[in-house]
Amino acid sequence: MAQSLTRSEPLQHWITVGNHLLNHPRLVLLKNVVFLLVLYHYWGRFYAKVLVGGPVRALYDLRDTIKKNLKCADWKGGRVSGTIYHGGDELTELLAEAYRMFAVANPLHPEVFPGIRRMEAESVAMVLAMYNAPSTGCGTMTSGGTESIVMACKTYRDMYKDLKGIRDPEMVVPITIHAAFMKAAGYFNIKLITVPVDPITYKVDIHRMAKAITKNTVMIAGSAVNFPHGIDDDIVALGQLAKKHNIGLHVDCCLGSFIMPFLEKAGFPTTLFDFRVEGVTSISCDTHKYGFAAKGSSIIMYREPKIRKYQYFLSADWTGGIYASPSMAGSRIEAIPQLHVIGNPIGPVVSFGSQASMNIYDVGDKLSSRGWNISPLQNPPALHVSVTLLWTHSADQFIKDLKASVDDLVADPESGKGGTASIYGTAASIPDKSIVEDVAASFIDLLYKA
Questions:
Q1: Are both 122 and 219 inside the same structural domain?
Q2: Which family does it belong to (predicted)?
Q3: Which of 201, 191, 221, 218 is nearest to 209 (CA)?
Q4: Domain tally for the chain?
Q5: In this structure, are 374 and 313 located in the same domain?
Q6: What pTM does this model have?
Q7: pLDDT tens profile 255-298
Q8: Whole-angstrom distance, CA of residue 335 vs CA of residue 325
């Protein structure tokens, strides 16, 4: 027994020495430092993977879901006609930064945001200069081409009600005019009279336009260029009609915008269409198309302020104070024997039809299957290309695919019969167009179902 106790004494001694060493203040400090480093390591991993990584992963998952469920056509590859007027990524970043700077600004209150008022005024002045407006020229900024056109129609309705006492206003426009004129007619109770175009030039028939003008006509209109075929109407002849009857003439340059004013300087064929034409009293120009401004942005211009004042909405007895508001708060085809260009387009829009033996809508469906987004037209059946900066880079490929599509249909006419041909063929065969309109309205209803 005594011998075993004697043997344990050295062990106890070393245990005591060990505890003494382990509890030495410097070693305790070292242990605490190591503990903190280990804690920091695992806290960092926890923070990165759970507290930060979780939301980041959720953000990436949301982004991937949006990309998956909110797909769009290949507009970056230049395969979409019109629609996207993209001036490059650098410009997009600039637009985003400008929007961030002025996101809270309210142009309705120029006394609070005088800088916004100045920017709008300068934008209007620049576009007036582009369109050779006289010194009396004036205008306002709107939310887009539709609003610019609607405002012009409202202006002439109110002006000639005041100046001529016209209570049942009418406007006479080409059948190819933008649908915004139809919208304005519905909004403001203006009778819309449409005039056919020349079957060769696709410009509005001036003789029939003249015959359609009555004592109730408050305005006529023309395009430079129109949406369907990219054709410019004879604005000079329309100006003569407007002067003869003392009525307004609106020129829709929403699509021609920043292309038409520069054709002459660039050495391309053009015609007179701006304020140099006597009789032109207003012009609309979209700055968010070939001007590359952010959507939506457009300018409505008038020859003189005494016309523009009828655009304004004024209320002097509103309980919220005196209310005044200026507006509403909205490459050529190579020789392909089976196809032909509609008219003689001079701007950024080209439309083309086909021989009677080929359905042009089948050509469109073939192009769609090759990744192109082309607009179908009717009366007459045709396809429409609105050339953008992105489109120019893919023009050669488009011509190749267009030829290949036509060749496919020549080799096998039955390979057509796609969806577009069915839709427009059926629509053309229905005499009661209200049925087609009901179907279109139902389609819009479906668009707003989440």
A1: yes
A2: Belongs to the group II decarboxylase family. Sphingosine-1-phosphate lyase subfamily.
A3: 221
A4: 2
A5: no
A6: 0.71
A7: 888 999 999 999 998 999 999 999 999 999 999 888 878 778 89
A8: 52
